[in-house]
Amino acid sequence: MTGLVLKLGPNERVLINGAVIENGDRRSRISVMTPNAHILRLRDAIHPEHANTPVRRVCYIAQLVLSGDAEPAETRMQLLRGIEQLSQVLNDADSRTQLSLATAAVLENLHYQALKHLRTLLPREERLFAAAQK
Q1: Between 20 and 30 A from 78 (CA), which of 41, 65, 105, 119?
Q2: Which residues lie in coiled coils (predicted)?
């Protein structure tokens, strides 16, 4: 079997090609066979007003591609520039690895993978902001 397999928890919502799909009361699996479908788990979604930190802003751009609200070609340079800026601040080995993986994913038009790698940086960013507040 090929395609993307989504494993959804009870009542979990997912956006597929602009339509919000809500799972029933039990866990389920959905196979998406259409290549290049726009898919975004709503639990992972960042609302525009919450895209207020550097990592969240770059995640939001990737999310726009996944939701179908932006074209990959239009956002490629913006994403790569944002990842490069993050790499100047998040320079520990693990962050650099995640940023490299996100860059490779963007270059291959794998925006879900890019978002997945970028989201791992959110806790680090939060800790940096918390330390700066002290």
Answers
A1: 41
A2: none
Task: Spell out a b/e string for 80-97, using b for 16 or more CB atoms within 10 Å of the CB, else e.
Answer: eebbeebbeebeeeebee
pLDDT in tens, 29-65: 989 888 778 888 888 899 999 999 999 999 999 999 9
Check whether residue 122 and residue 90 sit in a common domain: yes
CB atoms within 10 A of CB 55: 25
Which residue reads 């038009």 in tokens? Answer: 109
What pLDDT, in 10s, does the model give residues 110-134?
998 999 999 999 999 999 888 888 7
Q: Which of 78, 77, 79, 74 is nearest to 112 (CA)?
A: 79
| Structural domain of 20 | 4-43
Please give the helix or strand (H or E) that residue 21 lies within, else none: strand 19-22
User: Can you tell me the distance from the alpha carbon of 126 to that of 21, in angstroms, rounded to the nearest whole number?
Assistant: 31
Q: How far apart, in Å, are the Cα atoms of 28 and each of 21, 24, 41, 59?
A: 12, 8, 14, 27
Domain match, 37 and 60 both: no
